[in-house]
């Protein structure tokens, strides 16, 4: 969910308020001294001037206390109350405060709203992801169990033919292979979201391994392929292997990696000549477990892993519009 934005307007800094308050406090005794020097003290009894001076001091003190409460204590207490409300109410409680007082508290509140929004999104993502994982694992497990039960309950009087037995065994092997692929994707996704390694790599480094892993694809590199980017070799292998596998599943025979770089970022265009991505699916391709090639072994996790891996290293990926056949992705990553 997009985080609510703090309304932009001029607010005094906390330092300004502190300095003004200190100057006001320092000015009080000076004003009192000047006042009494201007007035003759004729008796030991408290003169009306003294009463007025004390009243003025009391009023100024109360005013200073009100300013501090209004600009500092009040917004902080409101922010504390809002955190407790969010803890109880979730997404509905994520909204701006009524007043912020100082610029620093406004910035703090915006950072808190951003963090709260990300935590809520993360919680919803974990819940949705767990449901998808449960469904994806349950389907092949159910098929394996069903085939195994049929094989176990084979009737001696009416036994299965060899072809039927091989059919069920092939189904078990295929579903076991699908489970293995799902678990491999889950490991890659976990690695993408909790990166620990740092390092650099370049397209020229990963091309040989990529060609060996996907011999059916004619993979080429263009441009600044020797430019190093802030992506460890293992992470780069995972990113481009998933993109190559996605292209292969779409019927591609060519895969081109075109690299351009400046002083701060590198842009890598990944093009293929496969079936492309339909307009209806363009907004869904990065959703977990979305696949149009499930029957051919697609898990729907590849592009999600690519995005998570790049995001963990400060990069981004987006799908570009293409005039002809195939798909084209733009990867931007720091050098």
What do you see in this structure?
56% of the residues lie in helices and 10% in strands. With 335 residues, the chain is an alpha+beta fold. It has three domains: 14-121, no CATH class; 128-193, Orthogonal Bundle (Helix Hairpins), CATH 1.10.287.130; 203-334, Heat Shock Protein 90 (2-Layer Sandwich). It has a five-stranded mixed beta sheet with strand order 1-2-3-5-4, covered by helices on one side. Helix 6 runs antiparallel to helix 7 (302-312).
Order of strands across the main sheet: 1-2-3-5-4
Order of helices and strands: HHHHHEHEEHEE
How helix-rich are the residues, as a percent range? 55-70%
Mean pLDDT: 79
N-to-C span: 30 Å
Please report the number of helical segments. Answer: 7
Q: Any idea what the shape is?
A: elongated
Residues in β-strands, percent: 5-15%
Which CATH architecture of the largest domain? 2-Layer Sandwich
Give the key terms:
335 residues; alpha+beta; Helix Hairpins; Heat Shock Protein 90; five-stranded mixed beta sheet; elongated; membrane; plasmid; HisK_dim/P_dom
Q: Could you write a compact summary of the structure shown?
A:
The protein has helices spanning 14-38, 48-89, 103-152, 162-193, 203-213, 233-249, 302-312; strands at 218-223, 254-261, 265-272, 316-320, 328-334.
Q: How is this fold's topology laid out?
A:
Blueprint: H1 14-38, H2 48-89, H3 103-152, H4 162-193, H5 203-213, E1 218-223, H6 233-249, E2 254-261, E3 265-272, H7 302-312, E4 316-320, E5 328-334
Parallel strand pairs: 1-2
Antiparallel strand pairs: 2-3, 3-5, 4-5
């Amino acid at each position: 969910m997009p985080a609510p934005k703090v309304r932009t307007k001029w607010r005094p800094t906390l330092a300004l308020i502190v300095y003004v308050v200190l100057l006001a406090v320092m000015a009080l005794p000076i004003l009192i001294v000047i006042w009494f020097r201007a007035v003759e003290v004729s008796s030991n009894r408290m003169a009306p001037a003294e009463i007025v001076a004390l009243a003025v001091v009391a009023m100024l003190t109360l005013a200073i206390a009100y300013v501090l409460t209004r600009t500092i204590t009040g917004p902080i207490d409101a922010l504390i109350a809002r955190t407790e409300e969010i803890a109880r109410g979730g997404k509905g409680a994520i909204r701006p405060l009524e007043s912020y007082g100082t610029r620093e508290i406004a910035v703090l509140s915006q950072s808190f709203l951003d963090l709260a929004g990300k935590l809520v999104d993360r919680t919803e993502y974990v819940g949705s992801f767990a449901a998808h994982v449960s469904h994806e694992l349950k389907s092949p497990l159910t098929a394996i169990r069903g085939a195994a039960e049929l094989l176990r309950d084979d009737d001696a009087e009416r036994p299965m033919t060899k072809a039927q037995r091989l059919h069920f065994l092939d189904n078990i092997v295929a579903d076991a292979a699908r489970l293995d692929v799902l678990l491999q994707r889950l490991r890659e996704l976990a690695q993408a979201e909790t990166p620990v390694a740092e390092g650099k790599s370049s397209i020229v480094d990963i091309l040989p391994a990529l060609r060996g892993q996907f011999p059916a694809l004619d993979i080429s590199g263009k441009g600044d392929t020797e430019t190093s980017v802030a992506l460890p070799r293992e992470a780069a292998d995972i990113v481009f292997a998933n993109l190559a596998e996605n292209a292969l599943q779409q019927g591609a025979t060519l895969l081109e990696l075109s690299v351009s770089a400046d002083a701060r970022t590198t842009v890598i265009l990944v093009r293929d000549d496969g079936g492309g991505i339909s307009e209806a699916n363009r907004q869904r391709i990065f959703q977990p477990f979305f696949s149009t090639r499930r029957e051919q072994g697609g898990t729907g996790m590849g592009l999600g892993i690519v995005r998570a891996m790049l995001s963990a290293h400060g990069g981004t990926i987006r799908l570009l519009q293409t005039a002809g056949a195939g798909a084209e992705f733009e990867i931007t990553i720091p050098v």
